[in-house]
Amino acid sequence: MIPVVEQHHCSKRHRNSTYFARCAWPGASVTGRGQLAIVITCPDARVVLVERLRWAHTLLAEFNVFGCGPGCEGAHEIVAIDLDPDLPPFPAQRSPNPEERPR
């Protein structure tokens, strides 16, 4: 199960995952795009956004095997970013009918 992150450090509703990640993990460099994030909290804090779960697992495996850089502590994880906590985090889980969505 992939943890879902919906908490960040301000009261804004962020337009995309990049803005959300910059707010949720201040000081970390943010690259890529997508609602899945590989969060690296080693001394060189980074967030790598990806669009597909398979890509996230592949990249996480590379970080875990080869490290993320000098001083790597192995502190890497995959999380899903929830830009709208009122709706399920992944489009496949959302109802196709807008009338059925919670408000």
UniProtKB/TrEMBL annotation:
Region called Disordered, residue ranges: 84-103
Protein name per the record: Uncharacterized protein
